[in-house]
From TrEMBL:
Protein name: ABC transporter ATP-binding protein
Pfam families: ABC_tran (PF00005)
Region (Disordered), start-end ranges: 1-25
GO molecular function, one term: ATP binding
Source domain of life: Bacteria
Domain called ABC transporter: residue spans: 31-261
Enzyme's top EC category: hydrolase
Organism: Bifidobacterium choerinum
Keywords recorded for this protein, A-Z: ATP-binding, Hydrolase, Nucleotide-binding
E.C. no: 3.6.3.25
InterPro entries named among the record's database cross-references: AAA+_ATPase, ABC_transporter-like_ATP-bd, P-loop_NTPase
Length: 344
């Protein structure tokens, strides 16, 4: 909008034209997927999928097994052909022979992809050589990558001598040694100990802080919530939700889940049914259930849900034991939106 100050009068008969508004140049997304369709025979794997990954972020791509995540990633990487749609990386079309673009991408697969015959250092050096020809530059990058994942003491070890967590770190070093601008992490913390998991997540956040855009897939929702700034959920090859973790949680009815130990209801079926009916009748209650001596009450978002539930139990003379309350998790979002637990 042009303000009055943007227009001046030369005299009563002439007026200068308003200055055009300045345009702010926004860089193209790291990934732009438009209406992507992919069939495997009669099976529709990607159903007009759209996806936009902004530069400099950590993007969570989630979905149950068979949802189309792997197919989408392989199409984005130029490893699969597709029926229709468009894929652009850093504003440029991506295809099987887009080698200049592929040099700017790193991939850390779920399966360990290293050579058992080579040492840690030789593995990292080999993968670096696929992108960097200069030996001096390659040596520097290899040293940096090994230090980055904390494998300096294991340089001469072969992979079969490494623990699961150390193998995962080696897998990461091989995928990021060439300092890619865009990195795909496919379930990098599967079957590792908590210490290794924390180390891997901290490493991913550090790579992002240094400028790499991250696409992250995982079945561990606490990880996704911890590191991802945007999350896309897909199922049956199409997007069903997109937003921050908090935005996704606001999409479902359940705003709070209250658990109350009530062993006295176990032996009194009539009282148990009256209690459940009374709790379900509360304005904020979405559902109530009883199992293994515990009442579970699902509520919509509200400031006084716990107080209302406990007052109702007191009115019914139902003794309450241990009480806990939690907000919805991303797995709750999955159950609500897909009907499928993420770990299936």
């Amino acid at each position: 909008m042009v303000s009055m100050n943007d227009t001046t009068h030369a005299d009563s008969r002439t007026r200068t034209a308003p200055r055009p508004a300045q345009r702010v140049a926004h860089p193209s997304p790291a990934i732009a997927v438009d209406e992507l369709v992919k069939h495997y025979g009669d099976k529709l794997a990607l159903d007009y999928l759209n996806m936009e990954v902004r530069r400099g972020g950590i993007y969570g791509l989630l979905g149950p097994n068979g949802s189309g995540k792997t197919t989408a990633i392989n199409c984005i990487l130029g490893l699969l052909t597709y029926d229709s749609g468009e894929i652009r990386i850093f504003g440029e079309p991506m295809g099987p022979t887009s080698y200049d673009l592929k040099r700017r991408i790193g991939v850390v697969p779920q399966d360990i992809a290293v050579f058992n015959e080579l040492t840690v250092e030789e593995n990292v050096s080999y993968f670096c050589s696929l992108y960097v020809a200069d030996r001096a530059r390659r040596k520097s990058l290899v040293d940096e990558a090994i230090a980055f994942v904390g494998l300096d003491d294991y340089r001469r070890f072969r992979p079969r001598k490494l623990s699961g967590g150390l193998l995962r770190r080696l897998n990461i070093a091989c995928g990021v040694v060439h300092k890619p601008e865009l990195i795909f992490f496919d379930e990098p913390t599967v079957a590792v100990d908590p210490q290794s998991r924390n180390s891997i997540l901290e490493g991913i956040e550090k790579l992002n802080a240094e400028g790499s855009t991250i696409v992250y897939t995982s079945h561990y929702m606490e990880e996704v919530e911890q590191i991802c700034d945007r999350i896309q959920i897909i199922d049956h090859g199409r997007q069903i939700a997109l937003g921050t973790a908090d935005e996704l949680k606001r999409m479902i009815d359940v705003g709070e889940r209250i658990s109350i130990e009530a062993p006295s209801l176990a032996a009194d079926e009539a009282m148990r049914e009256r209690t459940l009916a009374a709790l379900r009748a509360l304005d904020a209650v979405h559902d109530a259930a009883y199992e293994d001596d515990v009442l579970t009450v699902s509520c919509v978002q509200g400031a006084h849900n716990l107080i209302d539930v406990l007052q109702e139990l007191r009115r019914l003379d139902v003794p309450a034991g241990h009480v806990s309350s939690r907000t919805p998790t991303l797995n709750d979002v999955f159950l609500a939106l897909t009907g499928t637990d993420l770990r299936d």
